[in-house]
Amino acid sequence: MSMPLVRNPGEGTTYTYYDTVQEQVVSHTETGGAVTVARLVMRQQDAPLLHSHSREDESWVVLAGRVRFWVGSTSLDECEVHEAVEGAYVFGPRFVPHTFQPITETAQVLVINNPGAVEEYFRSVGAADGRHDEDHVDMLTRYGLTLFGPPPVPKGDPRHPER
After folding, report:
1. pTM (2 decimals)?
2. At the N or C end, where does the chain have fewer CB atoms within 10 A?
3. Which residues pair with 47 in a beta bridge?
4. Is the distance from CB of 75 to CB of 104 less than 8 angstroms?
């Protein structure tokens, strides 16, 4: 049974996901499976591959910085693109392909999944020298995630359109 809680920044448990440290603000174990919330500081190279979830809806609250979201297609070129500024709330329903990337050098984001079991995937990946989602396709599939394509290219990368 879940209990009400108040958790201030820095009071959650932390874990390493690839080469970043994330704060588990609230765990699905604390909410009876209803929700999981993670706080992360993202860099442009931390953008996930274009993907969808079949088991949960995903929401984001931009706490600092600006974040670009691609939604609605299995190809980045065909997605709708939206910019979310500090304080923005973004909702991504299950089955809708999406990805996101800071526009600013970094962005602090709350990532909210309803229901919350997908947090076990993030915790189980552990440390690595950078994102390698394609190395975890079997595990992603077990958690109901489908990968569609590469992540957005970070600024400064020779392939970025605004180099």
Report:
1. 0.89
2. N
3. none
4. no
- Rounded Cα distance between 97 and 74, Å, is 6
Residue 126 neighbours by CB under 8 Å, 6+ apart: 16, 17
The rounded distance, in Å, linking the Cα atoms of 93 and 40 is 20
7 band by pLDDT with thresholds 50, 70 and 90: very high
Within a 10 A sphere around the Cβ of 105, how many other Cβ atoms?
10
At which residue do the structure tokens 């050098």 appear?
Answer: 105
pLDDT one-digit tens code per residue, 38-84? 999 999 999 999 999 999 999 999 999 999 999 999 999 999 999 99
